Amino acid sequence: MKTNLRETLAAPALSEDNEVSGTAWVGIVLGLTAAVLYSLKAVFVKLAYLPSGGPSGGSVAEQVPPITLMMLRLGFSFPVYLAILFWVWRRTEVKPTRKQIGLAMLAGVLAYYVCTFLDFTGLQYITAQLERLLLFTYPAFVILFGALFFGGRLTVWGMASVGLAYSGLAVVFMGGAITESSNLWLGSALVLSCAILFGLYQLIAKDFIDRMGPQLFTCFAMLGAATAIFLHFMTSALSADGVAAALDLAPRIYWIGLIIAVFSTLLPSFFMSIAIGRLGAQKVAMLGMVGPLATIVAAILVLGEPFGFWDGVGTFITFTGIALYMKSSKAKPRKT
Questions:
Q1: Total-model pTM
Q2: What is the mean pLDDT of residues 83-111?
Q3: Own/partner pairs for 114-119, CB < 8 Å, 24+ apart?
Q4: Which of 171, 68, 58 is nearest to 117 (CA)?
Q5: Contact 164, 317 (CB under 8 A)
Q6: Rounded to whole angstroms, how far apart are CA atoms 303 and 294?
Q7: N- or C-end of the chain: fewer Cβ atoms within 10 A?
Q8: How far apart are CA 29 and CA 33, in angstroms?
């Protein structure tokens, strides 16, 4: 999809570009805005799963399947990425090979179909705050997979930082209010699986981005994901009551799909690209830490989710661990 918040948060493992360029304050504003917008995705998805009466209920839930919500997001955002693909392709002198294109599309299936499906499904069971906190720790898997499969190395400081981050999660699970859930372990397992697979994707994507450039890779990755999402949606709809019935949704669901596509997909990807160009990936990665905080505030105010003392303690510990990891990676970038 992009050089986006998710790619940027993993930048300590993937990039050594730390130079500041352009007008710094513009990059800071856009980087912060992108982090907030992308992190609000979980809140928007939870709104789609709520009864039409809102957080307090008041009517029967629409039971929107995750794949339908993904299809709406795709329908509103993909035409823009397709237009970018044609525009960039015409201006690319050295075209990628068919093999490179095919592998880039497969990588997109992993990141933007499989991971998104796991994430959206997990959000049916757990709070938006817990989802964001679980996803926020995925750099741990970048470290692990980098060492196991990509020639990276495990450092004592890096592993200690990751251990600290997960100890914060343990505090939340043992005493936090945000773990109140209809099926805590299933939802957490789905979202954690998303984090694991996305960590692997980050390492796979680096080679393609270096060869094809971020814009072409992003567009082909989205093309692969779009194909998988469309086939999944059509198979699911045709095996049930048909496509028309699957798309017979309340107007608010379409509005939420549009909001997710525009404000949590398109705009953050463009803003983040500009921010990286002006500040460098490492500095934008640190700005990305504001994202989970935005999720917490929005989840409390919009969704009415609880947030207790131990949630705050655990979240702070997790943030500290990830921040220390980013700082150590900035000082000694890993080569994978």
A1: 0.82
A2: 91
A3: 114/197, 114/228, 115/194, 115/197, 115/198, 115/201, 116/70, 116/194, 116/225, 117/66, 117/67, 117/70, 117/232, 118/190, 118/191, 118/193, 118/194, 118/197, 119/190, 119/191, 119/194
A4: 68
A5: yes
A6: 13
A7: C
A8: 6
DSSP state of 97: P
CB atoms under 10 Å from CB of 149, counted, come to 12
Strand partners, 51: 61
User: What does the domain layout of the chain look like in residue ranges?
Assistant: 5-53+63-138+181-305
CA dihedral 76, 82, 83, 88 (to 10 degrees): 150
Q: Left, alpha or beta for 248 (phi > 0: left; psi -120 to 50: alpha)?
A: beta
How far out from the chain centre does Cα 102 lie? 22
Side-chain half-sphere exposure of 122, counting CA atoms within 13 A: 29
Amino acid at 144: L
| Lookup: tokens for 2 | 């992009």
Q: Residue 21 and residue 229: Cα distance in Å, rounded? A: 38
All residues at 6 or more sequence positions from 16 whose CB lies less than 8 Å from its CB, including other chains:
333
3-state secondary structure of 136: helix
What are 13's two structure tokens? 């493992």
Cα–Cα distance list, 285 to 11, 15, 35, 113, 306 (Å)? 7, 11, 9, 24, 28
Tell me: the pLDDT tens digits for 209-263? 788 888 888 889 989 999 999 999 999 999 988 999 999 999 999 999 999 999 9
Maximum Cα interatomic distance, the chain, rounded to a whole number of Å: 58
Q: What is the pLDDT of residues 249-305, one digit of tens each?
A: 999 999 999 999 999 988 888 887 677 667 765 576 677 778 888 898 999 999 999
Calpha distance 141→254 (Å, rounded)? 34
